[in-house]
Amino acid sequence: MRHNFLILLLALLAAGCTPQKFIVPTPLAHPATLFPADAFITQRGVLTVRGRQFTLNGYVAKSKTRGLRLIMTENFGGVLADVLVKPDGNVFVLKAAPPFRPAWVKKYIAADLQCVFVDRAGTNCPLQMLSQTHFVIERRGYKLDLRTVEVKPGVQPAEMFDEKSGGKP
Predict the structure, then answer these.
(1) How far apart are alpha carbons 103 and 106 in whole angstroms?
(2) What CATH topology corresponds to 31-155?
């Protein structure tokens, strides 16, 4: 009987099957660690709200000393949201166009921005990292499926992070 068990175990190992206790999943790092401290990141996303899907483009300027700036556009280039998040967590809504309201941009879009790009974003971060370029954020009421398209490392212009001037790119 013991001889048959040993043969079965060897056959399973030879076939590539291993008992679950020997498989150690490789943990994925938080997405914030995947991006350079200073960079310009282009993302494409699908926002699903009440069963309706909207495709969006996001342009994120990231500065280790000045914060994060997101400009979210529709497919034809119209700016839907422009938000600045300072390193101390202060949020400035520079623009919110329909269907987004300034309060919604401040509460959700800024939170999702921090969820992806700030490692210490807090516990209210329903982020799933499917790969190093694919993230899903699912909150009550909506789902955001993001894919990183391009990352350009380098220091971003200081005016991108100036809330007083409107941060014109």
Answers:
(1) 5
(2) PH-domain like (2.30.29)
CA–CA distance, 83 with 146 (Å, rounded to integer): 17
Q: Beta-strand (E) ranges in 64-141?
A: 67-73, 79-85, 91-96, 127-131, 134-139
Q: What is the pTM of this model?
A: 0.78
Domain positions in the chain are: 31-155
Per-residue burial over 115-130, b if 16 or more Cβ lie within 10 Å, else e, is bbbbeebeeebebebe
CB atoms within 10 A of CB 166: 13
Please give the Cα distance from 104 to 120 (Å, whole number).
22
Mean pLDDT in each 10-residue stretch from start to end of the chain (169 residues)?
A: 51 50 51 88 95 94 96 92 94 94 94 87 78 93 96 95 71
Are 142 and 130 in contact, with CB atoms under 8 Å apart? no
Question: Is residue 38 a contact partner of residue 153, using CB atoms and an 8 Å limit?
Answer: yes
